[in-house]
Known about the structure:
alpha/beta, Rossmann fold, globular
Amino acid sequence: xxxSKALNxxxxxxxxxxxxxxxxxxxxxxxxxxxxxxxGLYKEFGQSRIFNTPIxxxxxxxxxxxxxxxGYRPVVEIQFDGFVFPAFNQxxxxxxxLTYRSEGAMQMPVVIRIPYGGGIGAVxxxxxxxxxxxxxxxxxxxxxxxxxxxxxxxxxxxxxxxxPVIMLxxxxxxxxxxxxxxxxxxxxxxxxxxxxxxxxxxxxAYGPMVTAALQAAEIxxxxxxxxxxxxxxxxxxxxxxxxxASVKKTSxxxxxxxxxxxxxxxxxxxxxxSNEAFYNLEAPVIRVGGxxxxxxxAKLEEAFLPDADRILEAIxxxxxx
Length: 321
């Protein structure tokens, strides 16, 4: 099953289980969204459960907040990552704070689906990586699947959460296929997963970069380098116990993501590793990311986005210490 189809199946299951689950956004009904993630749901559940909205992201999230106040579990789609910023005030000033503001009396079970990242030949506003903004905001949970099985189960787990969840969907991987276990959830929503065990260096990745990390590990193995790959899965909260256990074993860490490294998820993770595993480290924590520039034109994006070569160059630097 492809990641897009797994997300669709997860949404379908959640809507079947709970009639309070609603899905809405721009062109998500009859069309099924620009990436067809909601394809077929309109025919199955009708316009009272899945419906289109105007091109007004602030209104989309504001409507979701109101519906959550009335006992619904809304799932909304932001059509592209760069379109989320008109809704930023609603998300960070209202959605993230209402449960705390009401001392827990008002739950906000809202899921905001955001296709994110580059690699599809699009331009800025269609290829952003805004995860750090949301992970920085207390009151929001932020998760991102990297494979179809996680996409299927994390969607359902996010919808079941009583807190607002930002579901970042790696759009360049929407058509990546893999097995899906329809019977048992693999792990809790906020646990990291060791994708590949190794002994010489810990490679941390999430979302679209997990595939690149595994490719780098495969090439490294052919060259005699043992790389442990961890899929973070959750960006807020972060599963630091899994990270620390790996780093203390390998004594080295490399972090990779598509977003620029300045004031990023990798900045915080590197700081925590340095604080909690300082005496275990044989080398500085090295970060690999996009460059500190606006997203480039499509013909330059492969030079902007990290790949296996850039990851392996960072691993070589780490091992050289």
